[in-house]
Specification:
Distance between the termini of chain A: 37 Å
Largest interface: D-E, 42 and 53 residues
Helix content of chain A: 40-55%
Largest sheet of chain A: 4 strands, antiparallel
Oligomer: homohexamer
Number of helices of chain A: 8
Order of helices and strands of chain A: EHEEHHHHHHEH
Radius of gyration of chain A: 19 Å
Mean pLDDT of chain A: 83
Number of strands of chain A: 4
């Protein structure tokens, strides 16, 4: 089960050179952030050959093992990977573009789940504001319940928490990519030339990435195990 | 009618060692809090063998007698049991994970019922803001009524009350587990080895648990029976 | 047409002794408050034999005459009767329990009707915020209208008015039961022994109840008939 | 086309003497206020014989001519007539009862139409916030639009305006009935005796009613025709 | 394609003399304001013969040419024409009546379109808050979008803007009619006598109307074309 | 795939001379702003011959290459082109008219997508508040989610952001058109005479347009690539 981290939106086939360059830097943005952060599935392939119905390029991560639990840190790092493409565009082209729309959706969904389902925001507490979005839960009767069973104040706290989580992840991605600009640029040239980076090139790239110290991004490490947490 | 207190989410079968350890500590978290608090059904089994469709492990409590009434204290203690798994992860692994999502849903539901159906919050009074969630009540016509028959101010008070109840329960669980760290760690080793703890092991564990003094958690014990309560 | 005032929730048959005692005090709480307040239908039977699908015990009131009008005082007294069971649990067992859930629903419905349909709250005026909840009114088109045809400020005033009415009724019940503790305890012993109190026992109980002076609970008695009321 | 102004709620047939007295004073309250205010259809009959499905008594007004326009003053006077029954209960029995529920609905509907459809509130201006409640307007698509096409601030202004209009009408009714207490009491005795007052009795009653000076209740009479009104 | 500007509500046929007089002044109110303001379709007929299902009288305007664009001034003047009937009732009868309900609906719709669809309110900007109300837009899916795709603050600004536009239009109508009282009264006598005014009478009336200076009502005329407008 | 930028609303065929002039200036407003701003598809045709069902005139832009990504600057410039017609009416006729309604819808949609889907507003962050409006997303279940999954505070921020973006675009259009008044007027005369401008005329017009310096309108160009952006 390989996971395609991201992919710029695509409606047709042939990209103009400028867009092709943007896609190359964007995809490598995902790849480099994924390599720099712990707990992320290893990158196997980076490509700027349009694929499927929506992607101008893609980056494939393949898990080394089945996982059933995700910690708060791993989810935050995953958001940074998702925003790595947009961060790359921002650093190398000084713009925000429509190409990251799907990445924003995925990062937002992750942040919302952290806040609404996994009780990972201090102010909102260990409360489940939403049940799992499984079809069996979405009966007409229960539908209204999910949408509005909290006050506007709580909804505002959720919005702030989601914005903070996503903003923090974007900052992390910017920070990591700024630390790897030369290798990013060099590898982008290679990607534009070869169109797809496979095992060997990926391995070479990974060798040049300095792992980010993930610990300083951890918001919740207790000073002492005896402390009572964030309730 | 045995009750399965909790169970970490599961999608597949084989856990990696680190996750297996987390599950062991998590399940024992439920068990130890249940043993330390009065009014909770006795624990009969603790297992880290995945079971059914959603659980990575499970803890079984079996009531000694049929019960028809639950007091405020018993409901609060039940929430502490439900959050015992998350509290264990927090103490021993310094993280919050997605594994406690279902526990949060159950604890939140309990807290909401206390506040909305059982009139157990001082500020919100002896008022029923919600009827029993029985199918016969969920007719299309009455549906909208349930969802919104109070002001945003009241909804805000509910959110605060629910967050306080759940947060308090988590603190209680942390407190109890901190007081039993050595036995928790020792029994986790045993559980990882045997995969399931049955009668004898459970009995040995229970013998080492110091009952928590539940009274200090009681928010509503009247100073004198003559006082008029929280209205 | 006898009216069953209340009844603790029941799912099965056999109660443990502690719950049986709670039910006895709870039912007598209804009965004693009903006897102490004017305008309430006379009590005919009090029983702790589970009955029907939802009741752990029951108290039967039978009207002496058909009534077509209810005054504000009578409705307030009726709420005190409904909360008499919970008040008894609070006085004799120092707890709030889930057993009063149905009583809370009925008391809340009464308070809401006073405020929304009968114009009995000073701040909300002689305004009908809700029509009678008859099936013929609940057509899909009119449904939305009922739910939201007032501002959040008005909804907040309603919530405060309902909480005050219910809280006041609970205080009245506490006050009445505190004044009759010895007879309550003595009769509870009898009820636990006989399981049902019929005519003779009820008559003996009634003889010992001092009627509460209902007038001080009347919020609306005009100083002079010439005053213009609460508009 | 005779119009039945009001009628206390009824579920069955035989009233107890106290309720019968209340009904008599209530119905005469409607009749006397209708006689004292200009622009109201003449009263033709007052009865305490229960009638139809919902009324404990009734008062019949019959228009002398077809009318197609109603002015603000006439609508305000009509609300006072509608609340005349409740005002009578308040003056003679010092209570508010459930018997006026239907009168409140009608008075509230009148006030809401004045505010939402006829542009008769200064703060809310000459704006139509609601179209005529004709079936042809209540298509599913347009439904949502009607219910919410204004802000919460506007909804709050509407609530205040409706409460003021209804409260003012109640005060007017109290004022008029206080000025006619002796004839009200005397005629109530007659009504209790005869059960129905027809032409002769009505005529005699009318002769004793001093018309209220309606002008002081007019909120909108322009100081000079040249002024620009309430926009 | 003649346009019937307004028409008082009608349910039946025969009006009493007082209502007939009100209708005459009301209809002439529409006609005189239409004649006094530029950009309004010429009046062709004024009648107090009830017509169709809803009108007690009517005024017919017939455009001299097909128009595809309406400017802000023309829309504001059209609202003044719509409120001309109510303004006439206010000036000559010192009342507000139910007869103008349909005029209020049309004036409100015009004001809402100016604010929500045509970007003609300074504070709300050149933003389309609503699409054209064409059937093809009202698919169930898009319905919810229209109703609520802005905040309560924006909805409040809309309410204020609509109230201001309608209030301003009413003031304009009052101002114009006050300046033409003698001719209004004289022509009303004629209309009551003849029941319908056709070409000759209309022409005579028009000759006596002094055109209002529309320019001072223009809220948006830029001081210099170089200024950047209201964004 | 040619793109018709705008078109004044039309219901019929024959325009009066004044409206014809407005349409000519309006369409040239679109064309001139499109020519002055970078990243906009080249203009191929400008016409005042009514076309299709809704347009009084039209301006055709034809892309020189397929594009898959749009940057923030390009979207802002596109909004200025869309509002170029209204800006021309404002400069040359000193009015706002109903003719720009469809342009406002398109500009508003663009601004909303920038804010809600592309994360291009600083205060609202890199968050996706809305998924792509594809039919497959508009299932009944997901519908409610889209409409309300943020607080009123967030909705207010969105409204402000959209108003600012649209207002800024209008100011840009005004600025550009003010700088090209003589050529605008001269070309309008030509357009009124020929009714349609094709290749040669367009080329001549383009030669006279001074490109606007787009950079000063860029709100997001980072001072240094190392800065962390707007999170």
């Amino acid at each position: 089960m390989e996971r395609i981290v991201a992919g710029l939106e695509k409606k047709n086939r042939l990209l103009i050179p400028k867009e092709r360059r943007i896609v190359a830097y964007h995809e490598l943005g995902h790849a480099i952030v994924a390599m720099a952060l712990p707990g992320q599935d290893p990158v196997h392939k980076v490509s700027i050959i349009p694929r499927g119905i929506g992607a101008l390029g893609y980056t494939i991560q393949r898990p080394t093992e089945d996982r059933f639990l995700m910690t708060q840190d791993e989810l935050q790092n995953r958001m940074a990977v998702l925003l790595g493409g947009r961060a790359a565009e921002y650093i190398f082209f000084h713009h925000l573009s429509t190409g990251a729309a799907d990445d924003l959706v995925k990062a937002t969904d992750t942040a919302r789940s952290m806040v609404l389902r996994y009780g990972m925001d201090k102010k909102l507490g260990h409360v489940a504001y939403e049940r799992e979005r499984q079809p069996m839960f979405v009966t007409p009767g229960s539908q209204g319940w999910h949408a509005r069973e909290f006050s506007d104040e709580t909804e505002r706290l959720m919005d702030h928490a989601v914005r903070d989580l996503v903003g923090h992840a974007f900052d992390r991605a910017i920070e990591i990519l700024n630390a790897h600009r030369p290798v990013h640029e060099k590898t982008a040239q290679l990607l534009l030339q070869k169109e797809t980076l496979e095992e060997e090139d990926i391995k070479a790239l990974r060798a040049q990435i300095v792992p980010a110290d993930a610990t300083e991004a951890m918001p919740e490490k207790p000073a002492a195990a005896a402390s009572a947490g964030h309730a």
